[in-house]
Amino acid sequence: MKIGMNMLLWTGHATQEHVPVFEALKRTGFDGVEVPVFDISDPSHYRWLSGILDDIGLERTVVAIIPDEASSPISADPACRRAAADHLKRVIDCSQALGATVLAGPWFQPLGVFSGERPSEAELERCAEIHREIVPLANAAGLACALEPLNRFEAHLLNTCEQVIAYADRLDTEGFGVLYDTFHANIEEKDSIAALVDLHASGWLAHVHIAENDRGTPGQGHAPIRETIAALHRLGYDGWLTIEAFGRGVPELAAATRVWRDFFTSPEEVCSKGFEFISSCLKECP
């Protein structure tokens, strides 16, 4: 398994000022970084960033979101759904320019927007229509797709492994996959390890986020991260274990994810202690 670090701990748009962060992550031992692709205005920026990361020696995955209701795949408005497809196509262009291998994230609805009801059949099918169009394009660009179910306080369409397995079966599209996040699973699943086993058995598991129960430093909370890594080893998973921790560095994201206080003393603590903890968990695997 490879160990990655999500750049949302620092920024929603990586630039020259983050090169020292990349270099520090490489020195720590990380195999790669997860780059936010929120600004889709200029693929050439990601091509430049690709060269920087190649020189440093870091692989990359990307994380993407649905930016607003006007670009929502679940909207009843066809114009909004078309905007969602156009947005995701631009995400793919930028991700390909970056040389990324995984398109991760909750790219099924905007964060924090709710209907007030359980997900409807119409919402699920509208979303599936967009994803059936987008997934083959992502695959053609060299990207494995890893859709991330979120907890019920951030989204309503997909919250549990059971729901996202059913959604993946509905899609029935080659190259589609699911992201398992220890933070969200710790909230939504009755038994998060059993849910992970079921997700793996379904054949849809494609990517893993390692996130503590408070979204702080892995290993310093009560999310069953050690047990998750042990289960992944038993299951034969050999993909990414990407740390996702949130601070106040991206105000819009902090607000959307309800991060109202600091969960760690510094980003450096999250990286060093998180990497050390995950490495120790991997060493414990027989």
From TrEMBL:
Transmembrane segments: none annotated. Residues 22-255 form the Xylose isomerase-like TIM barrel domain. The keyword Nucleus does not apply. It holds the Pfam family AP_endonuc_2. Keywords: Isomerase. This is Isomerase. InterPro entries: IolE/XylAMocC-like (IPR050312), Xyl_isomerase-like_sf (IPR036237), Xyl_isomerase-like_TIM-brl (IPR013022). It comes from Novosphingobium endophyticum. It comes from the Bacteria. One of its GO terms (molecular function) is isomerase activity.
